[in-house]
User: Fold DUF4349 domain-containing protein from Actinosynnema mirum.
Amino acid sequence: MRRVVVVGVVALGLLVGCSGGGTPSMAPAKVAPDEGGVQGIAPQRDPARQDPARQDSAGNGQQVPEQPGEVLSGRDLVRTADVDLVSGDVDGVVARVKAAAEERGGFVASESSTGQRGTAVVRVPGERFEDFLGALGGLDGASVERREVRTEDVTEQVVDVQARLTTQRASVERIRALLDRAGSTAEIAQIEGELTRRQAELESLQGRLESLKGRVALSTVTVVVRTEPGKAAPDGPPGFLDALRGGWDALVVALAFVLAALGAALPFLVVLAIPVAALVAWRRRRRRTAAARRSGQAVGGGRADPEAGSGASTGDLPGDRGEPAAEQASVPPKE
Assistant:
């Protein structure tokens, strides 16, 4: 019995020892392939995921280099430009600009001329944009002073508007289906109001899409023709003559503002002058009436005074005035 127990204990110890010694040797075997796969193997690009057009154009599996204009293919670009030309014949150059635009399928959207300066806003097809700019640089009797070209990518805006148009059309169709199934008058009125609102949104989106496509199809070029190039501002502080000229210009501007203010206030002054004139006339008339009344009273008082004076001269005697008789007798008679 003891032998069986001893043999069992020894067998169990050998089994545990073998399992403990085998575990460390198995762990690196599992990690090694992963580490080798990360460090030693470079990631490969799936040929099936490459651009089919490039595979077809290559044919033999060689890589086709990208072209410079390939990135812009399929993009909706709005291109505008500002060109300043210098010429002694402004009207003639503007006419040649118009002819160059019409030769390339474009037109002049607006035109203005003041003798020494002419401006023309030209719309040309997008594919003839660069050609037209080159023609402006080669016009007879004109030289390019400044040229500025701007490009705006509106591809995302076009895609967004198109997606919203699709959704809005489906929404309008659903509202129309509800209108066909409406039973009461209240439901019909409510559905028609909603249908009108959604149709208005649909038309707005359509207009925006047409505007974007029009800007992409026709590029805008603003051409300014001047008789002489723009002069740079002189360096340094202004001199006496410059200050005098500036003061005179300021005086002229101030007088112009004063005259403009008077012209603006003149209608109001005319309207206010009518009641003021009426008030002045009324006051003058009142003064004349009061003066006439005072003069009448003075004339009436003068007529009563002579009667009183005559009565005093005839009826009053020297003794009646209370004067002493001696004083009256002592007065010598006048010779």
